[in-house]
Specification:
- GO terms for molecular function: metal ion binding; phosphatase activity.
- This is HAD family hydrolase.
- Keywords: Hydrolase, Magnesium, Metal-binding.
- By secondary structure, this protein is α/β, with parallel strands linked by helices.
- It folds into two domains: about 15-25 and about 95-225, 3-Layer(aba) Sandwich (Rossmann fold); about 30-90.
- It contains nine helices and six strands.
- A six-stranded parallel sheet has the order 3-2-1-4-5-6, with helices on both faces.
- Helix 1 packs across helix 4 and helix 2 (about 50-60) packs across helix 3 (about 70-75).
Length: about 230
């Protein structure tokens, strides 16, 4: 799969490739499972009860992916003060994560010719890269919450451009969520590649947003785009 627009990059013009992190380089569901397990362990220490199965059911079967812990605490009449304990445990989980099968080889190949960066809205981006074994892969890692921003703003992308010392028209940005991985990079003049994979695979591009320059269904198709 590859959808090409009139604005197509050439290998000689592109000097850097930046990536979203969650669901672009790895399956976010694995991160969520590990975090829920860590939160359940913390709750077990504090309450003596095991809520691991219920947390997974709420998140994965009932699709309560926002406010999961609030719902659990309400259902069991547990103290609201436990919420911060759950959230902290979720994000502090340190079990290893696995990149998508092709991620490591694709990044290794790209690193021979391009400068590589990450721009993520996800909390704890540096920790995730360590858990994925990718911490030394990128010259720039911009975690938007760490600079009080989101990918709806230009600032995280502009920081990456400064880190990599490249103009936007020489950068390809790859991400899975068309709501945040396409509009601002398009506006800045980057070439955009949507990875149709993960939680937002079937999400439509917002009506007021120009489409991405390319769409791919696997990272191993990216070198052909470049």
């Amino acid at each position: 799969m590859g959808v090409k627009s009139a604005r197509s990059p050439t290998q000689s013009s592109v000097t850097a490739v930046c990536f979203d992190l969650d669901d672009t380089l790895y399956d976010y569901h694995a991160y969520a499972r590990a975090g829920l397990r860590a939160a359940a362990d913390r709750l077990a220490e504090l309450t003596g009860e095991d809520y691991a199965d219920e947390l997974e059911r709420l998140y994965f079967e009932e699709s309560i992916t926002s406010g999961t812990f609030d719902r659990l605490l309400d259902d069991h009449d547990l103290s609201p003060e436990l919420l911060s304990e759950c959230v902290e445990a979720y994000h502090d989980a340190d079990t290893a994560l696995s990149p998508y099968p092709e991620t490591v080889s694709v990044l290794a190949d790209l690193a021979e010719d391009y400068r590589l960066g990450v721009v993520t809205d996800g909390r704890g981006g540096h920790r995730k890269l360590h858990r994925l074994g990718l911490a030394d892969t990128f010259e720039s890692v911009v975690v938007a919450p760490a600079i009080d921003a989101t990918k709806c703003d230009a600032r995280p992308f502009e920081v990456a451009l400064m880190d990599l010392a490249v103009p936007p028209d020489r950068v390809v940005f790859v991400g899975d969520d068309p709501r945040v991985d396409v509009p601002v990079p398009n506006e800045l003049g980057m070439t955009t590649v949507r990875l149709r994979r993960g939680r937002f695979e079937d999400l439509a591009v917002p009506g007021d947003t120009a489409p991405p320059d390319y769409e791919i269904d696997s990272l191993d198709r990216l070198p052909a785009v470049l």
